[in-house]
C-alpha cells in the first residue's frame, strides 16, 4: 500500500504496536505523532519522520498531518481527552487534505456486559454508569456530525478487550497478582470479548485499504469465544498463582478504594511508564519475591479484602460474544493470530519485561 499514514497516539499501547507492524510489514511511509518528544523513545529504533503535536492543538495537528493520506486516531486518555480530541483531529485532517481517518473507538460503547444480539446497528446510550463508555459514545457521535461535510472519509473500529504484550490486561493483571489486588468475579466464567492487539492492527490496515469501508463502523474481536479465566490463567500460571484463590462472588455494590482510583488514573499510569525499564523490572521482581515469601510463610494468596470495580464486575459476568461478521464480509477481516498463540506471546513478553515468571518462555519482544 502506498501513501503516508500518520499514527496519532503512537506512544500508547495500540498506537505503538500499529507503528511497529506497519513499519515491519513494509509500509512505505509511517509517521508517528506523539504529545511530547520523550514519548518517541521506544520507536527511535525506526528511521521515521516523527512529529510532536497535542491532539487538541488544531494548528500543530494540521502541520503534523501535512502530506499524509491516512490518519489512525489511537489517542488514549481520560473521558475529557477522548471527547475534546475529536474535533481538532478531524478539522486538521480536512485542512491537510487527508483522505481517510481511522478512529479507534471501543466495544465498550455497548457496555461492559451488552445484551444478546448486540451489533454495530444497536443503539448507543450516553447515560451509562462508566464515564469511559459515555465518552466514546460522545466521540463517535461528534465524529459522525463532523464527517457529514464529506471532507474526510471516516472508518470507526470498535475492538473489544485489546490485550497482548505491554497491555493493561497482560502486564496490569500480572501487577495485580503480585500486589495481591487481583480478582475474578464468579471465577471469571463470563465471556471475554478479546481482541489480540495484532488482530486489531490487521483490521486497521484493512480499514485503510478497503474503499468501501468509508463511513462505516465495525466491531473487531478474536475468533475464539473465551472466558475471563481463559485470558487470565496463562498469566497466573506463569507467575505461580492459582486462579481459584482469587475468585470472589459478585458484589452487591461498588465502592472503589483510593488505591484502585489511583491505579486507574492516567497520572499514575504515566508515572509508572516514565520509570526506566530496569527500575520497573527490579521493583516487580523484588516485590514478587516478597509476595512469594509471604505466601510461603502465611499461606495467604491475596489481600483479605478486595474492592471490586463496577467495570470489572460487569466484564467478568458478560454473557454475550460480540460479532465481527460485518468486518469479515465488508473488510475481509479474519483474526490473523489465534488466541493460543496470543497468550504464548503475552506470557513470553512478561518474562522479557522482567516479571518473576516460573519459566523462560521466548515470546514476542
From TrEMBL:
<feature type="domain" description="NAD-dependent epimerase/dehydratase">
    <location>
        <begin position="5"/>
        <end position="221"/>
    </location>
</feature>
<dbReference type="InterPro" id="IPR001509">
    <property type="entry name" value="Epimerase_deHydtase"/>
</dbReference>
<dbReference type="GO" id="GO:0005737">
    <property type="term" value="C:cytoplasm"/>
</dbReference>
<protein>
    <submittedName>
        <fullName>NAD(P)-dependent oxidoreductase</fullName>
    </submittedName>
</protein>
<dbReference type="Pfam" id="PF01370">
    <property type="entry name" value="Epimerase"/>
</dbReference>
<dbReference type="InterPro" id="IPR036291">
    <property type="entry name" value="NAD(P)-bd_dom_sf"/>
</dbReference>
<dbReference type="GO" id="GO:0004029">
    <property type="term" value="F:aldehyde dehydrogenase (NAD+) activity"/>
</dbReference>
<dbReference type="InterPro" id="IPR051783">
    <property type="entry name" value="NAD(P)-dependent_oxidoreduct"/>
</dbReference>
